[in-house]
Amino acid sequence: MPNIVLKAGSRPPWVGLAAAVWVLIAAGNGYNFPLYSPSLKSVLGLNQQQITILGVANDIGENIGLLPGIACNKFPPWALLSVGVVFCFLGYGVLWLTVTQTVIGLPYWLIWVALVVATNSTTWFGTAVLVTNMRNFPLSRGTVSGILKGYAGIAAAVYTVIYKLVLKESDSELLLILTLGIPILCLAMMYFIRPCSPASGVDSSEHVHFIFSQVASVLLALYLLITTIISGVVSLSDTVSYILVLIMVIILMSPLAIPVKMTLFPAEHKRHVPPSDSSDHLVPKEGESTPTDSLLTPSSSGTNLGSFYENEDALDAGMLLAVGEGAVKKRRPRRGEDFKIREALIKADFWLLWVVSFLGVGAGVTVLNNLAQIGVAFGLEDTTLLLTLFSFCNFVGRIGSGAISEHFVENDPSNLVDDICTNGHAHDLHSFCICS
User: Is residue 39 in a domain?
Assistant: First the structure.
């Protein structure tokens, strides 16, 4: 991790979380393939097999995230977002030139590569905001991951509403928004997506803030589903359509209410002073220790959180020195800790997750890529409702998994041992034996 200056305070992490919502909506650009694939098919004169192969390119670009994963430990978030902006502009720019027939005669392989580059921006956007926000909220990683991935899942419905109500189902204008709109949005959010000092303790209001964020995301998902159904049944005027889109934008901005509330109504942190019968107890005699000494000594867990983003080279050097002196036994990382690639490849958990992701996610993207053709096969002229339903179910699964995983993590007794060993809470002999 680079040696960077952290933004201090309790409000900046929530500002970054609100900005991450918009970046994750932009990171859902890969879900738009069913909307503009019919235009690619007609303009280029492709058959269904060729369109399916382009769908494979869409999936490859959207799911190759090894380079962003490596880069997030070496470069700041704005660097990853910049790469995503460039990829998005170049990839979708080629597709826009093709659909509008501004450039004629582009080879099929170039369209394939352009689609890989365009959708690969998703991994750069998603990795930058997910890793940064999970580090900013180290005690609520599952909840943060569920909220942000939920917004990424509902992005397809957001694009569908814009495509239907504002763009009037124009594929060329949709690709123009993907080419210019997404880069501009991510450049605007770049300043707010930054590492912040994690909280050194548990804030009572933090749980309420997370509940508010989850409720806001659920409200957005329901609103998008209802809006899509209404627009498919009733013919809406331009004024009503723009009002509906404006309401959607306001709901998307709702997570910003948390840092605004923290600014207008700052929390007062009161220091608790234990009662004493006499002032004589406050001054110990010479050579005498008091029970409050251990309480006033900063805990190692607070030190760990305060130095969360220290230079890793210095930490590694200190650890190697301790290992050489025999003070610390070198061990492999446990579940929930950071693994290097070589350490992860020899773990059965890694391959189990890989197989589950391959089968589960693979089935979903296969249906998504062929959603337009599935709708046509069932006699549906308007397939936007299918995409919205797919996006809604995708959202429910993502945010639900984040909340459920956090519940089991918090109630897992084995985490007490991990907390003792990794955060330095081994103050007694029994704890030391557990860690050893």
Answer: yes
45-76 core/surface letters (b: 16 or more CB in 10 A; e: else): ebeeebbeebbebbbebbbeeeebeebbeebb
What is the CATH classification number for the domain harbouring 80? 1.20.1250
Please tell me the distance from the alpha carbon of residue 108 to that of residue 277, in angstroms, as a whole number: 85
pTM given for the model: 0.69
Tell me the helices (H) and strands (E) count for the chain, helix number first.
21, 0
Question: Residue 315: inside a domain, yes or no?
Answer: no
Q: Is the pLDDT of residue 120 over 90?
A: yes
For residue range 301-351, list pLDDT tens digits in order: 444 444 444 444 455 555 555 545 555 555 677 766 677 777 777 878 878
| Burial of 38 from C-beta contacts in 10 A (0-12 / 13-18 / 19+) | middle
Rounded alpha-carbon distances, angstroms, from residue 101 to 40, 94, 251? 10, 10, 37
In a domain, 24, yes or no: yes
Q: Taking residues 31-56, what's their average pLDDT?
A: 87
pLDDT in tens, 156-165: 888 988 998 8
Distances (CA, A) of 212 to 147, 190, 209, 243: 11, 24, 5, 24
Banded model confidence at residue 65, pLDDT cuts 50, 70, 90: confident
The count of domains in the chain is: 1
Please check whether residue 210 lies inside any domain of the structure. Answer: yes
Residue type, 60: I
Rounded Cα distance, 148 and 49, in Å: 34
